[in-house]
Design goal:
It contains 14 helices and 19 strands. By secondary structure, the chain is of the alpha/beta class. The protein has a domain of about 270 residues: 5-stranded Propeller (L-arginine/glycine Amidinotransferase, Chain A), CATH 3.75.10. Bound molecules: arginine. Its main location: cytoplasm. InterPro entries: Arg_deiminase (IPR003876).
Amino acid sequence: MTSDISSAMDLSPAPRVDSEVGPLRTVLLHRPGRELKRLTPRNNDQLLFDGIPWVGRAQEEHDAFAETLRSRGVEVLLLADLLRTSLEDQRARAAGIYAAVDERQLGIDLADALRSHLSTLVPSELATVLMAGMTFEELPAAEGASLVRHMHQPHDFAIAPLPNLLFTRDSSAWVADRVAVSSLVMPARRRESSITDLIYAYHPRFAKTSRAYGAHSAPLEGGDVLLLSQGVLAIGVGERTTPAGAESFARSVFLDGLAHTVLAVPIAQERATMHLDTVCTMVDRDAVVMYPAIRDSLSAFTLRPDGAGGVSVDGPSPFLTAAATAMGIDRLRVIDTGLDSVTAEREQWDDGNNTLAVAPGVVVAYERNVETNARLEDAGIEVLRISGSELGSGRGGPRCMSCPVLRDAL
Ligand SMILES: NC(=[NH2+])NCCC[C@H](N)C(=O)O
């Protein structure tokens, strides 16, 4: 008998992810909420959205995405539910409030007042503020004068909203039985990892979780991390993950014995290719869907443990060859995005490459990428189509919107 109440109550199987395509059992999603209603034409660029989504429709699309996964036997965990439960723990509340209240922006007086106010909220109210932020006009009534309060506009954010929570892939990623909490590089997203961090620390379901990476390390985002096969990782290095992030993540997974090879893959530092999973995702044990414009130029540095606690670096060499060698297969099959270079460019932008595998050879994809989906089917891949006209306005597809927590071994 254990005296630990949380572990006694939680009978769910332990989290573990060793591949991109092993049968998906449990996934973390975030149903978009009030934080999307904060987007305006004045702030959408800074908040990393390319348009102003119709929130009700985005929620419907997201519900259909979750339902598609459930219909394939996947357990869907919703981030807001996990956050509310976690915030029942005083330590989680303190961590969430600490990360949300920026004394440099608010000044000491207002920051103090806001922290006191937030500490009176019940978990569900606090969760809403941590996700959707707070404007100056929503602040509790002023006691005393604050220059900061006087000089801000009513709609300015005292706590910035986190509309990109939708992309649960980026703020954490599992490698074997450990979670890597990301160190997000864009200011609009940095606070997201304080939320995943507190969930993994204080939610009973994750009570026994060890870390593979921490939010205060060099920049690394989950969208750049691909588990090519057991022990083999590819890490995109570009607009988000930095060379230092890839190197320190490699060092960390080697030390923990989670991988024997890490491929560091340079990608263009552009919005269209912000993460490796915008140009390449795995659709089967030995197959990827890939943007043809980079197919032949994509390269990789091969990192391995050097036997003395450090990391050895080889290459660069062509990505497809380096990947096949590290995976111990003859070749990695490549399915191209689109039909011609213009269609491929359009469908890459609309996340045609950003598929989520629910099993080997079965992927969820946006229906709008007609040509890419047809090619996947021609290659024998089953495509579960979802609509994403509103969800896609944040530039992310099924893979970006999901953080697998448990996959069966291949
Ligand atoms: N894994 C991904 N490709 N995520 C897409 C994230 C999109 C998000 N709006 C951003 O700019 O950060």
